[in-house]
Every structure is written in structure tokens, then in C-alpha cells.
């Protein structure tokens, strides 16, 4: 029996085997660098994240979004630049009839505080130990990826070497890291727009996207600017670099446009859930050029234009929920 995905126009995306981390590190570095310089995305297989924790996170998403609207709205993230909490459908600027998704962002720093974590929706309170463990495993994988990135960029030892990026992404430091739970119901029959989540790039450093069998993620192919689906691959993680890395590397590595659309016709009747871990630089970190021989030196103007990760993320989120552009974006 043929797979319906065989007839879908899908993006050409590198599949990276994490076994190379211990078996052939040089090949792993090459594959990640190639992906970072071209599409900005790759699919990671044989990764170390516990499957039980992943399955538990998808169940948590279903439990959270099954709560009464009045309960969920008590934790609404609002429009002030806060990016933690609940987002109801049709809350994005200019969403028209396309923004049908529900979203709940869980702060990594909240998970580090067992007392504050009790002041959340009931499913989040009940799942706290497993959710924290999931965040810790995701962050550990991100750090391994960032260490490889630092090695690829040949950051001098005196500047921090392989630990340069790790020192800016400590789990115990305050940052915008978060777990995002997403639910996309089947679009209604009168649905006109193709986008369920508008075209965007991610704000931070590294994104880990966990999906199931229902498609919907599309990437803008830099070769011809066409939007193409990412074919779901069971048990994998879709990894992409964010704007902080593109900014740090002055465009040497790519933070690429992507969006979520209605699934292909054969899955259009299905609800899609996603679980995402967004890793972002620590709040106090200044987003400045990485000291690498591959990255051009700053101009005088660039040296004077400094912004912290906290300012960067808050401005980007504010723009996302209100459309208010900040001068340094």
C-alpha cells in the first residue's frame, strides 16, 4: 500500500543521526554546519530524549486544551510582551480566519520553582515532575548541539572555545526558554486562508519540535522561495536555528521562515498536536558577534548597537501579538 505522503511536495531536509555524536563527531559537525548554512533545519533521529516523557508531553497538551475556556483564560499571556501562559484561538494580529490554534507556553524558570509551578492549570500541576524532567532532557540536548556549533565555528579557546555558547544557555539562569504546547483543530469547511500559524522565524537559539503523524509544518525553500511540507518522521525531532544564532553569526547561519498550514487533504479532518522546546540565550546575555574566523568583524555602528536577549525576545513577542515594531528588530 502506497504512502499518501509520496504524492506530496515535501522539502528536502537533512536527516541527522545522533549516533554520530559518539561514533563520528566530525561527520556530525559537517552535517549540522551544512544544514545551518542552507535550510536552517534538520531532522534528528536516534536522539536521547525519553519516549515516555515525549508521550507524556503530548498527553499533557490534550489535557490542557480540554480544560474549560474560563479556566484556561485565567492564564492568558496577554499583549504586554509576556510570552508565558495561554493563547486562545484568533488572538494573533491580522489573523482573520486562519488563527485557529490554541497555545500554552510553560516557562523553564517556572519549572525550576516547584512552589510557583503549583499555581497553574490542574493538568500542569499534576504533570509537573515529568514536565520538568522533559525540559531538562531537552535543554541537555540543546547544549550538546550548541557545543558542536561552537566547535564548528572554531571559537578561540581564550574566548570560551567549545563552551562559549553553553555559558550563555545555563539551565539555572533566567531566560526565555519554554515548552510550548499546541493544538490545531481541523479547519472549518469555510476556511479560506492556508495558514494556521503565520510565516515566521523563531526568536531564540535552537528549537526542538516534536510532532506526530499529522502534517502541517511548511518551510520556505531558500532555493526557489516555495513553501513545502515537512514529511513527518516517526520518533524524530525537527531542529531549527533561531534569530539569535543568525544575529550572532551575522547571517553565516540561517534562521529560516516556516509556518503551519492545514494538513494535506488526506489528513485535513485530523487534529494536530505539537510540543516544542525553545532554547533562548540567558536574559542578561548581549547579542553580539560570536568570535569566529568565519564571521565578519562588526562595524563601528554594530559595536554601538547592543541589545540583551531579554530585550530582544520581549520586543519580538510584542510584535508578534500586537504588530508593534521595535526599532532594534
Automatic annotation (TrEMBL):
Residues 175-281 form the Fe2OG dioxygenase domain. It comes from the Eukaryota. Keywords: Iron, Metal-binding, Oxidoreductase. GO terms for molecular function: metal ion binding; oxidoreductase activity. InterPro entries: DIOX_N, IPNS-like_FE2OG_OXY, IPNS-like_sf, Iron_ascorbate_oxido_reductase, Oxoglu/Fe-dep_dioxygenase_dom. Belongs to the iron/ascorbate-dependent oxidoreductase family. PANTHER family: 2-OXOGLUTARATE (2OG) AND FE(II)-DEPENDENT OXYGENASE SUPERFAMILY PROTEIN-RELATED. This is Fe2OG dioxygenase domain-containing protein. It comes from Synchytrium microbalum.
